[in-house]
């Protein structure tokens, strides 16, 4: 178990000595308790397994009122993740690394927690037939680093999270939309990483908003998103053969994407691409045009061969190839599995904290726990310490799922628990405790 402490060392500057102890205990509990207790997580249940203080209320104060900053924890987590996975990032034509950021939102249900901070009514876009279109709970906006874009298995590593509160549930001056929250987190990310990376933001159709895209372009960020078929697009205006009075034309002929998707001879030759975890035979057509309302041209890619109908992608980088635009947008789908892991076993939405600081902090702690758990597989020095499980029914894969990582790490933690009686007190801390107990025994006998 001591070999896994390298995951916690970079975070020592964020906390004081007592709070750093609670941080490690909480992360380890989020790793192990979903399999050990098979029940809903709570701070008292975590305290029963970690025993880092005299009473579980100390762990509650760590989440609610201890002196540590959420932004500082997100900054250290981001830089630590980049240090481990920067060789897996894609590159542009000049060789500069592209930091591909997936921005998306997720929600959790809290029908009975009316007094919990941030609980409000949100539209449920994934509601099935017969289900309500709205649900009561939290809505989170997250940023994730996407790696291994061109590989068979795309990985998503969450680095930051923000709480969205519906407009009716907060004061008018305090309201921030999901796009505004995403912009705030992206601004902080740019400050943390500097000019070492070209930031490319990948979002779903909600982020195909001209005002939001224009704001990102003004900050030198690339945006890849999905476009509606009825978008107001125009060809680039042709240069006049002779000089004429007045200003030059900006817009050319209007473009109908549905009409242009029918001309098969205008598409590139068929190619095999590995997207959404499967091999597809697709045909692509790239159009450099203008979207009315944006000052600069954009690249629109028409994709056929995935699904029954063609769909349309927008890329603010007009020099990028159509295949790269498709790979970048398809990588966004990897964040969905991360959300399921966070809500099922990661602890997101299971802690019933009522204060604003407690809710926001615990959400980021669950994100940090999930990301560090994923890094165990990516760091070779740590992966070789995971016990190999015999699973002949599975197809051999180079990657491990989150369930496999949890099961392997659970064996390590249970072995540590059997040896020391605690998940957390390992290595030198166990020796110090044993020496302290021997000293107390000798003093009692002397007395």
Structure description:
The protein is an alpha+beta fold. The protein folds into 2 domains: 2-203 and 335-420, no CATH class; 227-318, no CATH class. It has helices at 17-36, 43-50, 57-64, 70-85, 178-193, 210-218, 257-260, 322-331, 334-344, 356-378, 380-383, 402-420, 428-446, and strands spanning 98-109, 120-123, 134-147, 155-164, 198-202, 222-227, 233-236, 251-255, 271-275, 278-291, 298-304, 311-315. Strands 1, 2, 3, 4, 5, 6, 7, 8, 9, 10, 11 and 12 form a 12-stranded mixed beta sheet that branches. Helix 1 (17-36) packs across helix 2 and helix 1 (17-36) packs across helix 12 (402-420). The chain starts with 16 loop residues before the first helix and ends with a helix.
H/E series = HHHHEEEEHEHEEEHEEEEHHHHHH
Please, what is the average pLDDT? 84
Identify low-pLDDT runs.
426-431, 433-447
Structural class: alpha+beta
As an assembly, this protein is: single chain
Give the total of beta strands.
12
What coarse outline follows from CA principal-axis ratios? Answer: globular
What count of domains describes the coordinates?
2
Strand content: 15-25%
Please outline the major beta sheet: 12 strands, mixed
Compute the gyration radius: what is it?
A: 25 Å
- Specify the helix fraction band: 25-40%
State the helix count.
Answer: 13
Distance between the termini: 37 Å
């Amino acid at each position: 178990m001591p070999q896994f402490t390298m995951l916690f060392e970079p975070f020592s500057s964020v906390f004081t000595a007592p709070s750093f102890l609670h941080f490690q205990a909480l992360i380890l509990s989020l790793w192990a308790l979903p399999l050990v207790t098979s029940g809903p997580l709570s701070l008292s249940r975590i305290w029963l397994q970690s025993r880092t203080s005299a009473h579980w209320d100390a762990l509650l104060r760590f989440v609610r009122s201890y002196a540590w900053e959420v932004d500082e924890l997100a900054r250290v987590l981001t830089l630590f993740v980049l240090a481990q996975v920067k060789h897996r990032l894609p590159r542009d034509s000049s060789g500069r690394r592209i930091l591909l950021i997936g921005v998306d939102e997720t929600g959790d249900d809290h029908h009975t927690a009316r007094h919990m901070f941030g609980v409000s009514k949100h539209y449920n876009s994934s509601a099935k037939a017969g289900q309500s279109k709205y649900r009561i709970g939290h809505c989170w906006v997250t940023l994730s680093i996407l790696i291994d874009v061109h590989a068979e298995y795309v990985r998503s590593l969450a680095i930051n999270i923000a709480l969205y509160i519906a407009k009716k549930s907060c004061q008018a001056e305090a309201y921030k939309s999901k796009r505004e929250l995403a912009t705030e987190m992206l601004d902080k990310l740019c400050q943390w990483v500097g000019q070492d990376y070209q930031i490319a933001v990948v979002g779903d159709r909600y982020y195909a908003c001209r005002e939001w895209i224009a704001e990102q372009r003004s900050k030198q960020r690339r945006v890849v998103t999905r476009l509606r078929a009825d978008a107001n697009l125009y060809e680039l205006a042709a240069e006049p053969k002779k000089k004429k009075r007045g200003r030059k034309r900006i817009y050319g002929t209007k473009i109908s994407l549905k009409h242009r998707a029918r001309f098969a001879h205008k598409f590139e030759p068929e190619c095999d691409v590995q997207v959404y975890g499967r091999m597809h035979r697709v045909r692509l057509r790239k159009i450099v045009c203008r979207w009315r309302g944006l000052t600069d041209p954009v690249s629109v890619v028409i994709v056929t061969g995935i699904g029954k109908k063609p769909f349309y992608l927008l890329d603010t980088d007009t020099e990028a190839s159509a295949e790269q635009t498709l790979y970048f947008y398809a990588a966004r789908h990897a964040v969905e599995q991360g959300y399921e892991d966070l809500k099922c076993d990661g602890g997101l939405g299971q802690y019933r904290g009522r204060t604003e600081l407690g809710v926001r902090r615990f959400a980021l702690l669950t994100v940090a726990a999930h990301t560090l758990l994923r890094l165990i597989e990516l760091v070779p020095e740590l992966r070789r310490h995971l016990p190999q499980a015999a699973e002949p029914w599975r197809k051999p894969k180079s990657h491990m799922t989150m369930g496999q990582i949890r099961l392997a790490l659970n064996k390590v933690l249970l072995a540590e628990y059997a040896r020391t009686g605690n998940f957390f007190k390992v290595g030198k801390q166990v020796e110090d405790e044993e020496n302290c107990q021997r000293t107390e025994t000798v003093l009692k006998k002397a007395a």
